[in-house]
Amino acid sequence: MRLSGLAILSLVVACGGDDGSGYELGEEYAGDVAATSFDATATAFTHIAPAFEGARRDAFFVGDSIFDRNWVIAPSSTSGIDGLGPTFNQRSCSSCHSLDGRGRPPEPGQPMISSLVRLSVPGGDVDGGPVGEPVYGGQLNPLGILGVPGEGSAELSWDEVPGSYADGTSYSLRRPTVTFRDLAFGPLAAGTMTSVRVAPHVAGLGLLELVPEAAVRALADPEDADGDGISGRANQVWDVAAGATRLGRFGWKANQPSLRQQSAGAFLGDIGITSPLFPQQNCPRAQTACGAAPTGDPPDGVELEAGKLDDIEYYSMTLAAPGRRRVQDADVLAGKAHFKALGCAGCHTPVMVTGRSAAYPELDDLTIRPYTDLLVHDLGDGLADGRPDHAADGREWRTPPLWGIGLFQVTNGHTLYLHDGRARDLVEAVLWHGGEAEASRDGFRALSAAERAELLAFLESL
Fold first, then answer.
1. Contacts from 242-249 at CB under 8 Å and sequence distance 24+?
2. Is residue 355 predicted with pLDDT exceeding 90?
3. Which pick of 60, 75, 322, 379 has the fewest CB atoms within 10 Å?
4. Which whole number is the average pLDDT over 273-286?
5. Which pLDDT band holds residue 4 (cuts at 50, 70, 90)?
6. Residue 76 resides in a domain
7. Using CA atoms, how far apart are residues 247 and 230, in angstroms rounded to an integer?
8. What stretch of H or E contains 322?
9. Domain presence at residue 286
């Protein structure tokens, strides 16, 4: 059998190994050779994994067009793209995930464009998930179609939180406060829990779906049996299609089991588009105009029919992971050593291996470097939103994959991090860590300025 150049390179990369400098052979291939794109421009997150060739690429571009499509109000002569709302946050996926990248919180006094506010009240629904606010539902939808009022608006203001490094150098973090204005149906119910969320970048997520569930669960240590202070837990969430609970992988609290369900949930919650997974309109009972509004009505009775959901799923599954840069530079390698010594890799697991899939054989058995364990961790009071989501409590957050974090400035024009965008750069993101990451954060604060710069260089290479 004659191996292709791609296969030969994959075998070489899979061998790994440290050359003595700290560089591991092939670590620049975040998604292995088969699923890594080397593009450090604004389009870095937009590429199909290179292993997909010929006709296997077609559905990707169809899905891309649906991802970018602006939905319109029903009924419309533009068949197949009507059904917007009745209430919604944006008109397309790419409005929040511009160029498949990351959203941002609004400036003070400005509306939310690529961020939103989750709402829930105490208790759990029949599937174990959060219970939406009784009048406004699970998230605030500020916009409405003609004749349907938007639910209101949310604005952020910021308070500075001072701190200092061990060497006496001062820094300041910022903490958000959300304010609701012009709520169309009166104030939120007493005890409503809120959580501001920005849209995450979506590159490489299909690789994370293909990591075997057993491999993720093997990383969990809920009782901290090894005594390292890290006690990651698997979130158990409801899989609508399967009618059973499964491992949560996606979302800021790992509250979605698959990219298909994540996508369908976002279509309903963010754009007001029904699908086979979520066929009912997002209209709480009190919102009568919403419930009476016209809807799109394609042949199978939902606005995003199964074939289009298939295309969106394929698109999401086959997006390449962004390749690393400067991986053999001395400052990056020194920063990598600090990352490991500080215990950051205890949650941000550097390496995983995909399993096997009949639908995506090109992605079988890949050594990937996402820097996540897909578990939820207690990150302390500073980052707590107080809002449980399935098994994740109000202090717990999923470890986000770090691939691509050094490209946000070039892809989306900002360097804002964490679930609500409070961190204005990667340093602030580190300094907000608490709870299970408190020792790592304090170790970072104790580094010299030169060592902190090396760690930053490493993070920016991801």
1. 245/128, 246/213, 247/213, 247/216, 247/217, 247/374, 248/390, 248/391, 248/392, 248/398, 249/208, 249/209, 249/216, 249/374
2. yes
3. 75
4. 96
5. very low
6. yes
7. 19
8. strand 321-322
9. yes
- Whether 184 and 339 have beta carbons less than 8 Å apart is answered as no
- 327 and 443 share one domain: yes
Please report whether residue 226 resides in a domain: no
Query: What is the pLDDT averaged over residues 375-403?
Result: 98
- The answer to whether residue 357 sits within a structural domain is yes
- Residues 64-97 as b/e (b if ≥16 CB within 10 A, e otherwise) read bebbebebbbbeeeeeebbbbbbbbbbbbbbbbb
Choose the weakest-confidence range: 16-20, 56-60, 257-261, 288-292: 16-20
Cα torsion for 396, 183, 116, 267, to the nearest 10°? 110
Task: Output the six-digit token pair for 421.
Answer: 């965008």
Does 118 lie in the same domain as 264? yes
Distance CA 286, CA 185 (A): 8
- Co-location of 36 and 66 in the same domain: no
Which residues constitute the domain of residue 301? 60-206+251-317
**Radius of gyration, alpha carbons of the chain:** 22
Q: Which residues, in sequence order, are bridge partners of residue 144?
A: 87
Last residue of a domain, one of 317, 337, 359: 317
Residue type present at position 38: F
Q: Are residues 273 and 346 in the same domain?
A: no
Residue after which a domain boundary falls, among 271, 293, 317: 317
Look at the alpha carbons of 127, 130, 131, 135 in this order and tell me if their dihedral is positive or negative: negative
Q: How far apart are CA 12 and CA 33, in angstroms?
A: 10
User: Domain check: are 293 and 271 in the same one?
Assistant: yes
Of 66-80, 335-349, 350-364, 405-419, least confident by mean pLDDT is 66-80
Q: What is the pLDDT of residue 21?
A: 87
Q: Which pLDDT belongs to residue 10?
A: 57
pLDDT higher than 50, residue 8:
no
Best CA proximity match to 126, nearest among 394, 390, 393: 390
Structural domain count of the chain: 2
Residues 159 and 140 in one domain: yes
Q: Supply the pLDDT for residue 200.
A: 98
Range 331-345 average pLDDT: 98
Closest among 274, 312, 253, 256 to 88, alpha carbons compared: 274
- Asked whether residue 322 carries a pLDDT value surpassing 80, the answer given is yes
